[in-house]
Amino acid sequence: MSKSLTNHMNTLLSKAIKLMAEYDDELLAEWNQVKDDLVEINDRYIESCEFIIDRLNTYMLASRYGVEAPAILSRMREDALEYFAYQPAAEKIIHLLNLLENATHTVLKRHIEFSSKLHPSIHYLFTKLSEVLVNLNTEDEMNLDKLCESLIQNTNLTIDWIARIEEQPDCFSVKKVHGKIGKIKREGYSTWYDILNTFGVDHSTLPVTYENELLLIGCENAFLHETMSMLFSLIDQHEKSYSTQWKDAVILFNEWIIKSQTLEQSCENICYGFGEFLPFERSALFRFSNMEQMAIGLYAHHLDKDEVKAIREQMIDIPAIQHKLNLLKPVGHTMRNFQPIYIEDAAYGFPEKVVKQFNLASMIIVPIYVPEEGQMIGGVLLDQGPGKHFPIDRTLFPALMKFGQSAGELMLRYIKPDYVNTGTDVREGVSFSPREIEIIKLLAEGASTTEAAVKLYLSEYTVRDYISTIMKRLNAKNRTEVAVKAIRMGVIE
């Protein structure tokens, strides 16, 4: 990357942090509300959320004193390396950062007109934070040292010490020793055998190769077999947690869909991309309309496209999805959980005619969403072929979530014209953003343009623009008709 481009991207990051610092108190309150909602649903990643919020708050303050974005990202890595014993699950980090990014946009929209224009800098910042936090494994020192310390501290194991041995150009050396062991020579070993003899390798010392090093593990002889079993299980789990192959799939998917020029091409490329770059055989893209009360088929891959496009199902008739969607909406806050939904058996909770028509068994439902709006606009159904059952594979979740986000950003370019009434049933294809719903509620309460602007921290011009757009979508002649139609459709109560 050229120096000028590097400087420009760093300027974007600094701009985002400084902008956030202007509203730090409100942001902290909004972020803490996200954390409180996680507490309410007993989310086991509350501590990770607390860590990210605490660090973001610290960095916002640091930006006031001239600390630049690259230094802040570097500090985030250092703090994370010190805080986390293991690499946090990538899908959870992405999920938490999506929630916090959405909360950030919520605050900015209260103060800044056309805040969506600020979306690239804010989104870029959270993207870089995601890269830092899901790729801590690129620092080998952190990986292995944290692993060794956690193994020694594990009360289920009986490990007294672990020595890290590495190969030098002309000899072998002891890189580091964890735990308690007598004084030993650190370097100058000609062969592995010299090292083994120095450590007195016997039946209570376990040699294990890990990446490009040898780990010598001192444990009690009586529990050697159990220790070995647990040890290799933990190391295998440790290695899997650092797998980042999903990023390659995301790059390929984004490069594939970016060439789309129309909504039809977007739908086709999205369906193909889900099936081509991930281990799934069939995919079907749906749009959720009328406040997610209806699923409308848009396109399919390795399924009959016309049959999928003919689908118009009320969500209430698909309890398997309806129940999961309800779980994605914690009470008391606008946060949304955009994690994939696993359906073990479609026979339980899907319309029988649909199950038979497409021979459905196990499936994954991937939300198609736009984090900036906290809005889910559709979903992709994935399976591994007709009648095939398969277990859930959570290592795919990071890629699935990123696919869903990229697909949502793309579809939003073309999906807005579908909101406008074309003379058919006004209920079909109408959807509203959270901000539009707030305005509709105020109209129903009889608020004037000025009153709505004050309550929503918007200009009167912006509110009038929103109202005009809403009236066109509902084919309403006046504000009263907007309220009546919105209530009839179930948009507001």
From TrEMBL:
One MF annotation (Gene Ontology) recorded for this entry: DNA binding
Keywords: DNA-binding, Transcription, Transcription regulation
BP GO annotations: regulation of DNA-templated transcription
InterPro entries per UniProt: Sig_transdc_resp-reg_C-effctor, Tscrpt_reg_LuxR_C, WH-like_DNA-bd_sf
Annotated HTH luxR-type domain residues: 425-490
Domain of life: Bacteria
Protein name, entry field: HTH luxR-type domain-containing protein
Source organism of the structure: Pradoshia eiseniae
Lineage: Bacteria, Bacillati, Bacillota, Bacilli, Bacillales
